[in-house]
Write a structure and sequence with these properties.
Blueprint lengths: L22 E4 L7 H9 L3 E4 L4 E3 L5 H8 L6 E4 L2 H12 L9 E4 L2 H9 L14 H6 L10 E7 L5 H8 L3 E11 L5 H9 L5 E3 L3 H21 L2 E3 L2 H9 L7 E2 L5 H14 L1
Parallel strand pairs: 1-2, 1-8, 4-5, 4-6, 6-7, 8-9, 9-10
Antiparallel strand pairs: 3-7
Helix pairs in contact: 1-10, 3-4, 7-8, 8-9
Length: 272
């Protein structure tokens, strides 16, 4: 697979052809894009890797390590993303075991799967919709008065989860364990592919990725992007796409998994 600053070449012969001839722009961070690219290939499509988000280590781990040292004080640990799982667990396991009483919560299926892959049992996570709103609807997140909750996340982000839990009486702290950045992509190569009609649909897995993509491609690229169908994984990202001037109604996948994104692309292909 290409490095983050490259646009990938067309890939190998697929085993099925539901997406034959379809060029799919994959904007996941480079280290998380392989699975989706492989599924596109297997469906006969052409994955075009153009990461619009980069996950980096935080500059100062001191506050995070200090919080990890007092994990016994918390009742629930919430992991916002698979990146939060991997970054946090690497540091936690280097210093201490997880407290046995600590309940592990995940905002989405990807985060729950990442916990399971690390030999941990996610106790609290939504079964269908995968966002902060869905997590807050769960019974375990309703009666939190007096509980201490830590949220492992990247730098910044939405405040809804912490604010709502505090309103319900919980004491909430953030553990920021990674930072997000805009990568340097080969814009020229991507625009050439767009001009040749090789980019048929775009996949975006977060609102921040979509904003970055609009910034990265420049004025000319935005004209192409606004005319190209976009698959998103949340209503919030779909609304942002409309605000950014997308002329084609965004396609919302049922969840943020690679399989759901492929299913959304296949449904779009069937309709067109």
């Amino acid at each position: 697979m290409a490095t983050p600053d490259k646009v990938t070449p067309d890939c190998a012969t697929p085993s099925r052809a539901t997406l034959a001839g379809v060029g799919v722009l994959v904007t996941r961070p480079a280290h998380q894009a392989q699975g989706l690219c492989q599924l596109v290939e297997q469906a006969g499509g052409r994955p075009i890797l153009f990461p619009a988000l980069e996950i980096l280590d935080i500059d100062d781990t001191g506050p995070l390590l200090a919080l990890i040292d007092r994990l016994d004080e918390f009742d629930i640990a919430i992991f916002i993303s698979p990146n939060a799982v991997s970054k946090a667990l690497n540091l936690i396991r280097g210093r201490r075991p997880l407290p046995q009483h600590l309940q592990l919560a995940a905002v989405g299926k990807g985060s729950a799967k990442a916990l399971t892959s690390n030999g941990l049992k996610p106790h609290i996570y939504p079964a269908t919709r995968f966002d902060s709103e869905a997590l807050l609807e769960l019974p375990a997140m309703q009666d939190v008065n007096g509980k201490r909750i830590v949220i492992f996340r990247g730098d910044g982000g939405r405040e809804l989860l912490a604010e709502t839990l505090r309103e319900r009486g919980a004491q909430v702290e953030y553990a920021e364990c990674y930072r997000r950045a805009t990568p340097k992509g080969d814009i020229g190569a991507l625009l050439k592919r767009w001009a040749r009609g090789e980019v048929h649909i775009v996949t975006v897995t977060s609102a921040e990725t979509l904003r970055n993509l609009f910034d990265m491609v420049g004025q000319l690229g935005r004209q192409w992007l606004q005319k190209t169908p976009i698959v998103v994984v949340s209503a919030r990202a779909a609304e942002l796409a409309r605000e950014l001037g997308c002329k084609v109604e965004p396609i919302v996948a049922s969840q943020a998994s690679d399989e759901a994104i492929i299913a959304a692309i296949e449904s779009w292909r069937t309709a067109h």
